Amino acid sequence: MDQIIKAIQSKLSLVQALKKDGTDCFRLFREEEVGFDADFFKNENEQWFVFLYLNSEKYLKENWSAFRKTIEQQLGGEVVCIGGAIKTPQKSEPIAVLYQKEGTENFSYTKENGLQYLVHFKGVLNPGLFMDQRRNRILLKNKIIKSQFKTGLNLFSYTGAFSLMATSLGVEMLSVDFSKRYLTWEKENQEKNGTIEKSKRIAEDAVLFLEKKHKKKEKIYDFVIIDPPTFSRADGKVFKVSENLVKMSKMALDLIRNGGFVFASCNDEKWLKKDFEKEMTALSKQENVKVEFLKESEDFTTTKKIYGLKCVLLTKP
């Protein structure tokens, strides 16, 4: 457990800083530190839910009781659930819950920047909140406040973390995702935070939705969020982020008013950062917009040579 203890102690100041900002969820362990990534979520009862990203089934045989007790000794509170997923180049699949206190649900609410998000821990590849985007949600929040934006579009909205950030500021948000399950999840997040009246949802292919809006040539949004999966297949159609994100960003720029922005991101490790930035820089010159490349949240900073998350902010003059 020495590596676990060392990793925790190296992040205690960050954990405390996040708590002051109203955040009770973060990535505490990285693969290069302890052999696997681990995300931690605390609920209002000071209980910890842990989600592991394992790169080998060998970890399923570990002594998770000792792991749990070490976490409690170092962080305080009580660990009530440990879930996760196996993620290797060959497969991605949920694992059975490794520990669950009797009477504990497989889901809970946690806080990020003062907002409450629903997270699940059983039968999922991700709990439902991509915390590597936390830093960017804060950046976009400040931009929205400064410019007093009123309308936004969130494509591939997933569970609606970006949408909730915007509706909490009074923005009218439309979330578009092919998955009705995730749109229901987004709705639950909005209801929990009292922002449901500012949110709308459409279950549709995000690319087709954008193409239809683009044909109308109406500048109807102050900003557009595009945060798609690396790869997806729906209704017999294949989506690859490396082949579509630049084209979608170009179309989205035509939907926003002057002074507005398009935020686009991807997590494709095969789409190298230098190539991503080269293509987005070329688009910014072609469209005469400001380009800014953004970073992941500080707890996701890694020593790996290749890291998936790449984000760009394209702002109209």
Question: What would you say this structure looks like, in words?
Answer:
There is one protein chain. Helix 1 packs parallel to helix 4 (64-75) and helix 9 packs parallel to helix 10. This protein is an alpha/beta fold and 317 residues long. The strands form four sheets. A seven-stranded mixed β-sheet has the order 11-10-9-12-15-17-16, with helices on both faces. Helix content is 33%, strand content 31%. The protein has helices at 2-9, 12-20, 31-34, 64-75, 134-147, 161-167, 180-192, 206-216, 241-253, 273-287, and strands at residues 25-29, 37-42, 47-54, 78-87, 92-94, 99-100, 107-112, 115-120, 151-155, 172-177, 199-203, 221-226, 231-234, 237-240, 256-266, 290-294, 310-315. The chain has two domains: 2-120, Transcription Regulator spoIIAA; 131-315, Vaccinia Virus protein VP39 (Rossmann fold).
Q: Can you summarize this structure?
A:
With 317 residues, the protein is α/β, with parallel strands linked by helices. Helices cover 33% and strands 31% of the residues.
